[in-house]
Amino acid sequence: MVSREQKRAALYEKLQLLRSVTNSHALNKTSIIVDASKYIEELKQKVESLNQDIATAQNSSDPNPLPVVTVQTVEKGFLINVFSEKSCPGLLVSILEAFEELGLNVLDARVSCSDNFSLEAIGENEGQGSIDAQVVKQSVLQAIKNWSEDNEQVQ
């Protein structure tokens, strides 16, 4: 038979795991659960936004759809994801120039440019003004649009 102390220890361990997964700083059970609920709602909103972006990209009649861009605010700045199903020569340079214009310092990045284009970067705002995720997303989208227009002129 499982003792109360073992059940309590198991519950405490699960609450600590939940606390760490949701980046909660709460100390009591109720606050940890409230933070977890908020975290789940944020994830639902992100999934909905991503699904809308994907649906928009799939419904586009453009034979050369632009890459999908997502930007999330994280502890150190912004998590920026850019994905395209096709290779995009020169796009990375355009995006990095947009980061520079915004005053974003790239702390960490992963890029794949072989069969498709994939960028995952963490950018920290080193500029004087504060910017939000929407400003970063619009700047990256503008850089992609400019890159796309430049590529159309070359072809």
Description:
The structure is a single chain. By secondary structure, the chain is α+β, with helices and mostly antiparallel strands. It folds into 2 domains: 1-59; 63-154, Alpha-Beta Plaits (2-Layer Sandwich), CATH 3.30.70. Helix content is 54%, strand content 21%. The chain contains 4 helices and 4 strands, in the order ααββαββα. The protein has helices spanning 4-21, 29-59, 91-102, 133-154, and strands spanning 68-74, 77-84, 104-112, 117-125. A 4-stranded antiparallel beta sheet has the order 1-2-4-3. A hairpin with a 4-residue loop joins β3 and β4. The radius of gyration is 21 Å and the shape is elongated. It starts with a helix and ends with a helix. The model has no long low-confidence stretch (mean pLDDT 84).
Element layout with pairings:
Blueprint: H1 4-21, H2 29-59, E1 68-74, E2 77-84, H3 91-102, E3 104-112, E4 117-125, H4 133-154
Antiparallel strand pairs: 1-2, 2-4, 3-4
Helix pairs in contact: 3-4
Strand order in space, largest sheet: 1-2-4-3
Whole-number mean pLDDT? 84
Query: Could you say which structural class the secondary elements and strand pairing correspond to?
Result: alpha+beta
Identify the CATH homologous superfamily of the largest domain. ACT domain
CATH topology of the largest domain: Alpha-Beta Plaits
Low-confidence stretches: none
Overall number of domains: 2
Summarize the main sheet.
4 strands, antiparallel
CATH architecture of the largest domain: 2-Layer Sandwich
